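Field reference: sequence -> structure
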Amino acid sequence: MPNLEAKLQEHFGFSQFRPLQKEIIERLLAGESAVGILPTGAGKSLCYQLPALLLPGITIVISPLISLMKDQTDSLVARGVRALAINSHDTAAEGRSKLAAMATGEAKLVFVAPERLQNGAFLEACSRVKVSLLAVDEAHCVSQWGHDFRPEYQQIGTFHAAVGQPPLLALTATARPTVQQDLMRQLGIPDAPLFRASADRPNLWMGLEACTTEAERQGVIAYLLRAEPGSAVVYVTSRREAESLSASLTRHLREKVACYHAGMEAEQRTAVQNQFMTDLVRVVVATSAFGMGIDKPDIRTVLHAGLPDSLEAYFQEIGRAGRDGKPARCMMVLIPGRDIKMREFLVKQSDDPHAVERFRRVCTYAYLKDECRRAFLMRYFGESEPSQEEACCSTCHPLEIPRREELVVEQPARKSRSRKQEAPARQAAAQRVAQPVADGAPELFEHLKLWRRRKAAEMGVPAFIVFGDRDLASVAEAAPTDLLALSACRGVGPTKLKQYGAEILAEVAAFTERERPAPREDRAVLVARAGALFVAGCSAETVATELSRSESTVWQYLLDFIGTDTTDAWKQAVRHLISRDAYREITAAFQASEDGRLRPVFDMLGGRYTYEQIRVARAVQDRQKVDGSLGQALVAKRLSRLTDRA
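Structure field:
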């Protein structure tokens, strides 16, 4: 048995396995089959990717979605692994080329849909190469008891025998005990060991908000999306709802909100998914068609504007949030009577004998009153109740939502303050969701994210395939100056070191040089130069470029300028950055706040203003107090301190 930790570091840049990964891999390398029930984000794919590189011949991965195959192959190819996906989008020439690469063993991993298993040309290519491992992703699809049964998956047992019965690995994120037993029987591995990790996702906050009208629901959704600026998915029941809600949110969030459903052309769906994966679109409103192919690690919010089809489907959909391990918010925003009638109608149209029972379970969960939502789900999936987590759900720690009449989207969104201060639990939850990825080096992390976005666009792949957030945060924390230091960062193996090493070191060096502190005597000059540029109407980005500083640095220069300018020029500097109405609203929020901290004020304002605008408003308020009391003498004293600080 090879040193698996060393191989993990060599091929994937990780220093240690996640729970159960090593045990599953050891079983496969010993020539035996296994079943893995691992939650979303637990690293299921590594359980067959690493063995594929260590075994002779090829590994065939059966996957239900073309988009899921593409993400996997893009990620593997970026790491230097020979992988390909054979699917219905291939031209005849592409198909022949891929089958040839498979038959000669040129590719180590081959991804196919279950429908491909009965294709004559594919079976002939399989007969010319040793199949060392067969992996079945989303294995719950083989069971008629599962929530996403696909008849094509029942061909896998026959195919497994046709390729010589190599070790078979069945993987899924959600499977109740009855589904587990059925899928093992259907796949012909009833005695294979079951490796089951807890489905519990402590980083996900789960909640319910009940509304009385559609306008009120849209207002709550808009509020939640403003409150958390990260990527988000809003699930709806019908295509019509997807189109209307995305259009409404586009107007009220003042940003593009994409729509996704099965009725769209394939090219349209692909374009929306690519925009979402590359951060060109932050929010997608979708039906359940926006499904298993979404593997974006930094989704911060998943909302349901309607009842889901089943608890299994719901758990998979909210499982797309927080895959990077950071806190995320998952919430049902329901109109009880209307949503129940809509789901009842769909159940009656279904010929699935289990549809009524699934509907009953969904309603039981949705309208829990006094029971922890996480505990209910864990019991449903056959696990013991989890330990109590801070801010785990709306039952244990309710989320304060502003007054209903202030959220209805048809009304002007001028005031969104709640009647009372936020509850301590909500403040704690907000701080957890907002915590930075790279605490010690946030500016370098943001700089490297811009490089990653450019690189991903150049390569035509999602940003996380170039570098995941946690890997990039490790680089930002280390700020390496040579390849040896870079190789010690999380997720940086030999392939990524060779592919991106020189560029990353150049980016870190450029950032370090740009952020080098100015000489003592120059800081006051830099503040004055920044003030003059803001007076001229320049944006923070332009000022940062002109002064060779980061945007966060020039914002601080502006705050210093507001506090130290001996003329009225500072008023002109802020005029294009914040309107009078915005200033009044922000200062009113500060007055309503008990301690004057920024985060509660930001939340109180519903995310309509940036932190920079809030800081500028506070600086203007402080300056006006100075001008109205101690006047220019105090300004001169501040200017003197600024020079000393330089």
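Note: The two ends are 60 Å apart (CA to CA).
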